[in-house]
Amino acid sequence: MMSKDTLYKALKERILVLDGAMGTMLQRYKFTEEDFRGERFKDWPSPVQGNNDMLSITQPKAIAEVHAKYFDAGADIVETNTFSGTTIAMADYGMQDFVYELNYESAKIAKKVAQEFTEKEPKKPRFVAGAMGPTNKTASMSPDVNDPGFRAISFDELRIAYKQQAEALLDGGVDILLVETIFDTLNAKAALFAIEEVKDERGIEVPVMVSGTITDASGRTLSGQTAEAFLISIGHMPLLSVGFNCALGANQLTPYLEVVSSKSDFAISAYPNAGLPNAFGEYDETAEEMAAQIKTYLDKQLINIVGGCCGTTPEHIKAIADLVKDYKPRPLPALEQTAAL
Question: Residue 259, annotated ligand binder?
């Protein structure tokens, strides 16, 4: 793990660049069902194509290549290939027993690439964020309209799953834990509670990033919170940064970043999609178009960390990295402590 001080020093000095989409890049490899399985899982009883996390075991070279491309493009931080790395999400493939290994190997791959780039360019240390996705279940809403009281998952089940993921990511050497693409804040609270447990048990400090997702034009998360309510719900935790990713393009995300930026003394992160998807679910926004929109964040001094989500590539990240070089990071405000509910 890179020293926490190194990360905080870098954050004070410049706007840090996060990587772009892992899934978008992996699609370029056109991996078949057999490629996903590799030797290790060639007799697996159910289809696994689409389980990108398992590629850290069966196609580690490709994962390392993607990380290297993002670092080459100017990223300071790459995310591990672990978006679905919990027993809850892996149940879709019957691969719960491999969760520790998937996270550990993903972290090791990313860390090795990060160290290589840091050695080449010591003035620009590279960091690894352990990606902890939202899972495919929600703790605060019923999936059954006929039974509003029903829950597909409990807080405790989420806590246990996230704790296992956090432990494996830390064992693999990540510098940061990133609880991301949060559509249900109760899920995120379970992840944050689990991380605090691990920190206490190990007697360590770990920088934690939190990134929610505003799902539509209503300006709310799927579980119904506004940007400010989301911030208040998690603001009691010791966080490195808070922000938003996914669901929206850079332009649509601006008003929500303005809200959290003005009301938070954490660093602010943003990694929007490459615009909104077209009729085929694909993202058309070019690197130049996306960078032009992100310039608004910089002109308004809204952010400290910026990257890309769905549809973004090393080209997008290079355009963003070239742009942020000329800007100072958002200064962290000293806010008066007030009770907010």
Answer: no
User: What is 34-73 written as a DSSP string?
Assistant: HHHHTTTTTT-SS--TT-GGGHHHH-HHHHHHHHHHHHHH
Instruction: Flag residues of the chain having pLDDT under 50.
Output: none
Q: Say how far apart CA 195 and CA 94 lie, in whole Å.
A: 25
On the 0-12 / 13-18 / 19+ scale of CB atoms within 10 A, 197 is middle
Long-range CB pairs of 226-232 (<8 Å, 24+ gap) are 226/259, 227/256, 227/259, 227/260, 228/259, 228/260, 228/263, 230/182, 230/185, 230/260, 231/259, 231/260, 231/263, 231/264, 232/340, 232/341
The domain spans of the chain are 4-22+68-324
Answer yes or no: is 310 a known binding residue. yes
Does the pTM surpass 0.90? The reply is yes
- Which among 71, 4, 63 has a CA at the least distance from the CA of 31? 63
User: What homologous superfamily does CATH list for 4-22+68-324?
Assistant: Homocysteine-binding-like domain (3.20.20.330)
**E strand or H helix at 322, and its extent?**
helix 314-324
User: What pLDDT, in 10s, does the model give residues 109-156?
Assistant: 999 999 999 999 999 999 999 999 999 887 767 677 677 776 778 999
Q: Is 273 annotated as a binding residue?
A: no
DSSP 136-203: S--SSS-S-TT-TT--SS-HHHHHHHHHHHHHHHHHTT-SEEEEEEES-HHHHHHHHHHHHHHHHHHT
pLDDT tens across 251-302, in order? Answer: 999 999 999 999 999 999 999 999 989 988 899 999 999 999 999 999 999 9
Scan for tokens 């279940």, then name that residue. Answer: 137
CA distance linking residue 283 with residue 289, whole number of Å: 12
